[in-house]
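ok trying this again, last paste got cut off
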Amino acid sequence: MVNTPRLPLLFLDIDGPLIPFGATPQQLPHGYPAYRSRHARPAAEANPLVTRINPAHGPRLMALPCELVWATTWMSDANECVSPWLGLPELPVVDWPETSESSDEDDRSGLHWKTRGLVDRAAGRPFAWVDDEITEADRRWVAAHHSGPALLHRVDARLGLTDGDFDVLGEWLRQRLEAPSSKGVSPASP
């Protein structure tokens, strides 16, 4: 029996990366506004924000060599509202811990409230985290506390995921499959 390495994790936030805040119609991908106007009604009834998500992201996310995991405050609503809109299967959801004594310390240091939970969930496994609120404090903390490679990729919340973001993620994830034992947090992304 061949022992195949597990795919890296991709922790995906919704608000900002998938639901852009403030993109103009000209900044949205070609054809997206027309798709949205033709197909938005059922999704809008579930949650009106879903219609701001580019449905073409679903196939692109599925094509990445990783295990997708929702890392969002949407919790189970991510699978009920967002996954169907994107054509994704039901995905695992990070179950956020209750606030702890370390949350006050994290607030003072600038550490994002998700960071500790994602490192715990990864348990040494390579992971990429896509969010619009990642800071240098998060990158330093992950580098010091995570035993595997990690990419903390900040997305511009005004635009959401772009072709450039997918390029960065795809390249980093493919490199993990080629050299799964390398350690460290990848250099800052925008």
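PB: full thing came through this time. Residues 9-185 form one domain.
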